[in-house]
Amino acid sequence: MSFDFDQPIDRSGTWSARWERYSGRDVIPLWVADTDFRAPPAVLKAFSERVAHGVFGYTEVPQALRAAIVERMRDLYRWHIEPGWIVFLPGVVPGLHLAARHLVAADGHVLVPTPIYHHFKRAVQLAPREHSDVPLVLSSGRWVLDEERLAQAVRRDTKLLFLCNPHNPGGTIFTRTELERLASLAERHDLRICSDEIHADILLEPGRPHVPIASLSAEISRRTVTLMSPNKSFNFPGAGCAFAIIEDAAMRRAFSSDLHATVHDASVFGYLGAIAAYREGGPWLHAQLAYLRANRDLVEQAVARMPGLAMVQVEATYLAWIDASALGVADPHALFLEHGVAMSPGAQFGAPEFVRLNFGTQRAHLTEALRRLAGALEARG
């Protein structure tokens, strides 16, 4: 079966957060992390069949979805989990906030590798919990953890380590060896780990597999909350379905404190989409990865020709982390927006000299956006 990711799709009037922000302006929006691709046919079929049924009442978690997740973890990662370890959520972001509020005491301390998806920081700030930012470092063309500084940042009251793997915005797939060293640190200092692995399926480099940190050993599994979702991989975040895998029963109870209180359930369409995606979405996902890989290559080649911009190869995600520090401008996001390209400002992730470009769009949109970026630089002289 073939899939046409080049097909133009008009998202105006659909309440798209990405497109509505710049509605009525000549701006190509390449910021928030969803794609402009239709969800897989199997997902659309599942949605259509439920719409035809016509009833959308309160919904129990489908046991078929628990089984599909258990099978997926086993088949992809040789990670054997139990159905009862799975806690369903409307999205990964609530999971970050639940971890910050319920896995760390009010006087506890959290480690946050930066730059990082901004909801990690918001989670500890709103909890509130004291935290330390530990900058990533660029090593051999990859954004990686500064393991020495991370170890130095551990305090007597440090209780939780946040991890984003694959990394957003850096695009790194952490290796098994890197994760083993991180796990060893957690064991030595008795740290819990909350690992956001929502981009685990969006792997652009063949031969570089995703490794859930909890899959390394029974000891690490018992101290880890793993957050996953089909929302990004199969592009139905508006339907809302994510899950946490938590082996330790006490951690699971603590993490789940706000469920059905301040945190609502996943939606019936989220459940339906997840089952369909995990059971039948493999060919579509494979085709999407090939398309995204070509888009990634296009962005890398274009950025390499633009004086003042630099980026490392994106191993995973559809997000390019572009270093604009050599331009010497205070706000590169504003510069490029003036020339019709809206990206995520690096300040959102803790690095204002960067911008994050979402290349999960039709190649015609992407090509025009890259032309505009080049034009913005040429206009500066």
Textual characterization of the structure:
The chain has 381 residues and is an alpha/beta fold. It folds into two domains: 17-41 and 282-379, Aspartate Aminotransferase, domain 1 (Alpha-Beta Complex); 56-280, 3-Layer(aba) Sandwich (Aspartate Aminotransferase, domain 2). The protein has 14 helices and 13 strands. It has helices spanning 17-20, 41-53, 63-77, 92-102, 118-126, 147-153, 176-189, 218-222, 231-234, 249-255, 268-280, 282-304, 332-338, 363-379; strands at residues 28-30, 86-89, 109-114, 130-135, 137-139, 142-144, 158-164, 192-196, 224-228, 242-246, 319-323, 341-345, 354-358. Strand 5 and strand 6 form a beta hairpin. The longest helix has 23 residues, at 282-304.
Write a brief structural summary.
The protein contains 14 helices and 13 strands. With 381 residues, the chain is α/β, with parallel strands linked by helices.
